[in-house]
């Protein structure tokens, strides 16, 4: 997310300074633990596609991403061919960046391998938790394509593996804590 820092993001949402789509995302998704692999995959893809763009752009296109990538069904996306890449390159409803599209397909394939080895993408994440952000970044760079420090940090924070999605004074902070995201283990 290239918009405000965590504290200012919470404040900006509460103050009504951002588009209402941010309020919905902030209040119901950001920092909440995700349990299903296709949802984790979706968030990873959205974070990758945000690189160089605003989070507002991604939120506006999020629903179309789901359609374009078959609901983020991992076996389906992993089986995409060169024809699918060309179809996606023509789809104005998503980010038409060949590197990001190809990374999405390859990352689906890699997650399928992780599922075979660990039972699920989530189990793989849980197996490696806790780690520092720097350790996570090294792990992701060695496992996935198109995953730099900002992408990995936001993916992990937005899915509950790293703290910081919400300021402690934010009303959503308590809701997230009630769900016991992985970063709260040991608190």
UniProtKB/TrEMBL annotation:
Pfam families: Adenine_glyco (PF03352). Zn(2+) binds at residue 26. It comes from the Bacteria. Keywords: Metal-binding, Zinc. GO terms for biological process: base-excision repair. GO terms for molecular function: DNA-3-methyladenine glycosylase activity; metal ion binding. The keyword rRNA processing does not apply. PANTHER family: DNA-3-METHYLADENINE GLYCOSYLASE 1 (PTHR30037), DNA-3-METHYLADENINE GLYCOSYLASE I (PTHR30037:SF4). This is DNA-3-methyladenine glycosylase.
């Amino acid at each position: 997310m290239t918009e405000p820092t965590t504290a200012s993001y919470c404040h900006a949402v509460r103050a009504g300074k951002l588009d209402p789509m941010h309020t919905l995302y902030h209040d119901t998704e950001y920092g909440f633990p995700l349990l299903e692999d296709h949802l984790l995959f979706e968030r990873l893809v959205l974070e990758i596609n945000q690189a160089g763009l605003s989070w507002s752009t991604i939120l506006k296109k999020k629903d179309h991403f789901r359609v374009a990538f078959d609901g983020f069904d991992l076996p389906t996306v992993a089986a995409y061919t060169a024809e699918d890449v060309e179809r996606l390159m023509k789809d104005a409803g998503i980010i038409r960046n060949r590197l990001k599209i190809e990374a999405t397909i390859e990352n689906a394939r890699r997650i399928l391998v992780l599922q075979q080895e660990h039972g699920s993408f989530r189990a793989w994440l849980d197996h490696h938790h806790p780690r520092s952000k720097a350790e996570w970044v090294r792990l992701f760079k060695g496992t996935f394509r198109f995953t730099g420090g900002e992408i990995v940090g936001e993916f992990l924070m937005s899915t509950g593996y790293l703290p910081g999605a919400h300021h402690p004074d934010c009303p959503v902070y308590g809701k997230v804590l009630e769900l016991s995201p992985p970063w709260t283990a040991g608190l």
